[in-house]
Design goal:
With 374 residues, this protein is α/β, with parallel strands linked by helices. The protein has 2 domains: 176 residues, Maf protein, CATH 3.90.950.20; 186 residues, Rossmann fold. The protein is built from 13 helices and 15 strands. α1 packs parallel to α5 and α2 crosses α5. The radius of gyration is 23 Å and the shape is elongated. The two termini are 40 Å apart.
Length: 374
């Protein structure tokens, strides 16, 4: 069916789904298409166009590794979904849709012309990526194509089965991914539960290695092995889907990070973005950390610049019987161990060092991501 944009938009407006749309670099035509058909207030909660790099950072709460990428599109969609949740209920009628694009401009573009779109709902994370052949369309034609792709994403969010046709050239193809949420993941994202475990049992570990594992690497594995030997107990990896200054992890990312662990390795997922929160969920636990993480725990800047709030958080961690097993890290200016850190006594007194002669790995997740290895 060769459906017109206005006909598709009317079908979209007739559904109960409410959407926050975030587009940058391209795709803004979808916003005008939604607004030009009467009934847009039944669909669109908000449309944002964070076009400047700093406005994207403000929308996400963090600077992305790349501004036009599959990963950034998903982060934008998650941020949009979280905004939708502030404006409207119930959760199963909400969606965040994003587009980040690099299209024809008034100067030569070194990289490919491309668009990455993402959809986030309570039940699903989906993406669409398209690389356009260079110098084959005008900017207006590229915008029109990406706008139609974005409207198809809105239709997906609303459960509308029809789609606009896309005028793709030979060799062009839309790459799509879709990750459905497990019920436990959905409850965690929506805040209905605070912690789950891949083993299915309520987690109560006494040794925890909290990390992003983005990606998991040999240094992480070695730290878990050594920590288990030193503490004489199993060490459970823990991933928080919440972050102090970033959108929550989406379902694609949750699946991706969990898939790095063996099936027999129990992995904890939580909403605890800070060690203050983790100590409440896991009182008496020993947390395995790098010296870079321990330093951040003691920085007032992580407590809105409030030194009193920082001290109170550290005191609560200590009062809950928690401790830290600290591995040295190369922070770019040399290897930094526990003894090198300027820490409040309350934190130093509950921290134990892994000797540098036992562990001295320089591999980092950031470095692996920048090298394109993840």
């Amino acid at each position: 069916m060769n459906l017109g944009a206005d006909q598709l938009v009317q079908q979209i407006h007739d559904t109960p789904t409410r959407i926050v749309l975030a587009v940058t670099g391209g795709g803004s035509r979808a916003v005008s298409d939604l607004l030009e058909v009467p009934g847009a207030s039944r669909t669109l909660l908000e449309a944002q166009i964070p076009y400047n790099a700093e406005s994207i950072v403000a929308f996400l709460g963090a600077r992305p590794d790349e501004y036009c990428s599959h990963r950034t599109a998903r982060a934008l969609a998650m941020a949009a979904f979280q905004r939708a949740r502030r404006f409207h209920q119930p959760d199963d009628q909400l969606a965040g849709l994003s587009c980040t694009a690099a299209l024809a401009t008034d100067r030569p573009r070194r990289g490919p012309h491309r668009a990455h779109l993402a959809l986030q709902t309570a039940a699903l994370t989906a993406t669409w990526s398209l690389e356009l052949l260079k110098d084959r369309r005008s900017r207006t034609e590229e915008e029109r194509l990406v706008g139609r792709l974005a409207l198809n994403g809105v239709a997906e969010a609303c459960g509308v089965p029809t789609r606009l046709t896309l005028d793709l050239l030979e060799g062009e193809r839309v790459e799509q991914t879709s990750t459905a949420a497990q019920p436990a993941w959905r409850d965690l994202l929506l805040g209905k539960t605070e912690v789950i475990c891949t083993c299915g049992k309520p987690p109560s570990p006494s040794a925890i290695f909290s990390g992003a594992f983005n990606p998991l690497h040999q240094g992480h594995r070695r730290m878990m092995q050594l920590a288990a030997e030193m503490l004489k107990r199993p060490v459970a990896p823990e991933i928080s889907i919440q972050n102090v200054d970033k959108p929550p992890l989406d379902y694609f990312e949750i699946h991706r990070r969990l898939s790095q662990f063996t099936p027999e390795q129990p992995v904890i997922l939580s909403r605890a973005a800070t060690f203050d929160e983790k100590s409440r969920l896991f009182p008496g636990a020993t947390f395995v950390v790098g010296s870079d993480t321990l330093r951040r725990i003691a920085l007032p800047s992580y407590y809105a610049g409030d030194k009193a709030a920082c001290f109170s958080a550290l005191q609560r961690i200590a009062n809950r019987g928690c401790k830290f097993l600290v591995f040295g890290r190369d922070m770019g200016t040399g290897f930094v161990r526990l003894a090198d850190l300027d820490l409040p006594d309350v934190l130093r007194n509950i921290s134990r060092e892994v000797p540098p002669e036992v562990f001295r790995e320089n591999v980092s997740s950031t470095g692996l991501r920048k090298a394109g290895a993840w």
